[in-house]
Amino acid sequence: MFRIYDLRLASPGCLTRAAARVLDSEEVASCSVESELRRVRFVARPKAADALVHDIYAEGGLTWCSRHDWRPLAGTEATALE
User: Fold this and answer.
1) Could you please report the per-residue DSSP string of 27-64?
2) Which secondary-structure segment (H or E) carries 19?
3) Residue 70 DSSP label
4) CB within 8 Å of 72: residues ≥ 6 apart
5) Bridge partners of 3?
6) CA distance 1 to 67
7) Which of 3, 6, 20, 46 is deepest in the core (most CB within 10 A)?
């Protein structure tokens, strides 16, 4: 199982730091960064992603975080990550 995370950050600097953490993580399966909205969205396994979000929160500037469970359909590329 994976989770989809949607993070909103307070400033461009906070966005840069959060995006760098997410993009550097080997546990992240997919990521998008929307700089004009100060938003980072990513897909990862729950345990690793929760730790990643905790670290981003601890750095400061995280204003919103939502997460939703996601199970890839059989036969899709994402199942190769499992």
Assistant:
1) TEEEEEEEGGGTEEEEEE-HHHHHHHHHHHHHHS-EEE
2) helix 12-24
3) E
4) 2, 78, 79, 82
5) 44, 69
6) 13
7) 3
pLDDT, one tens digit per residue, over 59-68 is 999 999 999 9
- For 22, counting Cβ atoms within 10 Å of its Cβ (0-12 exposed, 13-18 middle, 19+ buried), the class is buried
Write down the pLDDT at residue 23: 95
- Tens of pLDDT along 1-53? 899 999 999 999 999 999 999 999 999 999 999 999 999 999 999 999 999 99
| Pick from 36, 35, 50, 38: nearest CA to 5 | 50
pLDDT of residue 75: 63
**What pLDDT is attached to residue 77?**
56
Residue 40, beta-bridge partner list? 7, 33
